[in-house]
Design goal:
By secondary structure, the chain is an alpha/beta fold. It folds into 3 domains: 55 residues, no CATH class; 134 residues, 3-Layer(aba) Sandwich (Rossmann fold), CATH 3.40.50; 153 residues, NAD(P)-binding Rossmann-like Domain (Rossmann fold), CATH 3.40.50. 42% of the residues lie in helices and 15% in strands. The protein has 13 helices and 12 strands. The strands form 2 sheets. It has a 7-stranded mixed β-sheet with strand order 9-8-7-6-10-11-12, with helices on both faces. A 5-stranded mixed β-sheet has the order 1-2-4-3-5. The longest helix has 26 residues.
Length: 440
């Protein structure tokens, strides 16, 4: 077994500071949440210290800045972008690119770390990666969005590729953004390279079922968890925080499975109808008005109030740090299925566990997106398209297998589903690192 001299002792997490005492560049609240989960799992596992320490920091973190010209042609801003690979132990990097005003290096590093565990839990041949641009995409014209995306692609082009690091859509991006990334990359290479991104439009090599994949995985885990707690899906009440791609698909598929979706929310507001929402009607309203605000057939509700509704299932599918030590005591749901990354703090986890609330963690619950991204990557490399039924059936099979493995580990070790998922993912990565050794 590999050994390495380290300053930390068993039972004590490695420092989040450099040898000179300065905090790490990515040492932010979201990074602390991700690394705190790793540290907790490492102590339960008695993980070898040098591997534990190596997993806490990214292998590669690229920060770029570049000028971005607005449509008025006179306004030029400096925009900051990031692409982080947590580690390349398991294969090419895989992870989304998000556009948001508050993106920073710590957030992207945390997301890359979670993606490492997620891919390992799902047994995908990828390592965790993530990227982002610090800009609000809702204030961009289509032309501005395209120029921004193409310039960002040019800045990171040396670290992405179908065998190196494969981006995908995330918060604030979509299949059109992926199309621009693919086109820019392909133009530089001199030929079409559809495998450089996933989540592309179908017309240029995207996969059927990719857009709905994350939400489908969330609902697959929800149904498995309901069986675990002996709760029939028929009539089960569901609240969904977040009505973007993940939240809207989760709500629609939960209703199709027989559940009663009583509340949904977006970044501005939410709606609540205890008798159940008509999801096609709600989606039609959003398609016309963009936001849920003003929907006439339900009562208004805030994004915080939706978390405390008396429902059977809560699906946080918006952003991180939504369920905290302050509001966790007021959560009344019996089951939480995390559609977003990092929606629950570690303090909230303890409170929810003491209140017998079962939490299906993001590491497995929202892994449907990266799983179908894997299918799309395979299709691009093989130049052979799968049917939507084949994509969905393979996704559901892998999600059920992963959930069963996590549940079995949880029962065997007497730990939460989150801890079980982390143990599974970290164990697989640690063993791969041990097998590969240290160079030189």
């Amino acid at each position: 077994m590999l050994t390495e001299m380290t300053s930390q002792s068993w039972g004590m997490a490695p420092s989040t500071h450099t040898p000179l005492g300065q905090p790490l560049e990515w040492d932010t609240p979201m990074y602390k949440l991700a690394v705190g989960q790793l540290d907790a799992a490492a102590q339960v596992m008695n993980l070898q210290p040098n591997i534990w320490h190596r997993m806490r920091t990214p292998q590669r973190a690229l920060l770029v800045s570049f000028p971005f010209r607005r449509d008025d042609y006179d306004t030029v801003e400096t925009v900051f972008g990031y692409r982080v690979m947590h580690m390349n132990t398991m294969g090419p990097g895989k992870g989304g690119i998000r556009y948001a005003a508050n993106v920073d290096l710590g957030e992207v590093t945390a997301l890359a770390m979670w993606m490492t565990w997620k891919c390992a839990v799902m047994k995908l041949p990828f390592s965790g990666a993530k990227g982002g641009l610090r800009i609000d995409p809702t204030h961009l014209s289509a032309a501005e969005l395209q120029r921004l995306t193409r310039r960002f692609t040019a800045e990171i082009i040396d670290v992405i590729g179908p065998e190196m690091d494969i981006p995908a859509p995330d918060l604030g991006t979509n299949e059109q953004v992926m199309a621009w990334i693919m086109d820019t990359y392909s133009a530089q290479k001199g030929h079409a390279v559809p495998g450089v991104v996933t989540g592309k439009p179908i017309e240029i090599g995207g996969s059927l079922g990719r857009k709905e994949a994350t939400g489908r995985g969330v609902v697959t885990c929800m149904l498995e968890a309901l069986r675990m707690i002996d709760l029939d899906v028929a009539g089960t009440t569901v609240a969904v925080q977040g009505f973007g791609n993940v939240g809207s698909v989760s709500a629609r598929l939960a209703a199709r499975a027989g559940a009663k979706v009583v509340a949904v929310s977006d970044v501005h507001s939410g709606i609540y109808n205890p008798g159940g929402l008509s999801l096609p009607d709600v989606e039609a309203w959003v398609a016309e008005h963009r936001w849920l605000e003003g929907y006439p057939h339900a009562d208004p509700i805030s994004n915080t109030e939706i978390l405390e509704l008396l429902v059977d299932v809560l699906i946080p599918a918006a952003v991180e740090n939504q369920i905290t030590a302050e509001n966790a005591p007021h959560v009344k749901a019996r089951l939480i299925v995390e559609g977003a990354n990092g929606p629950t703090t570690m303090e909230a986890d303890e409170i929810l566990a003491s209140n017998d609330v079962l939490v299906v963690p993001d590491v497995v619950a929202n892994a449907g997106g990266v799983t179908v991204s894997y299918f799309e990557w395979l299709q691009s490399r093989q130049q052979f398209m799968w049917s939507e039924d084949e994509v969905n059936s393979q996704l559901e099979r892998l999600m059920k297998e992963a959930f069963a493995s996590v549940a079995a580990t949880s029962k065997e070790r007497g730990v939460s589903l989150r801890m079980a998922a982390l143990i599974l993912g970290i164990t697989r990565v640690a063993e791969a690192k041990r097998r590969r050794g240290v160079f030189p």
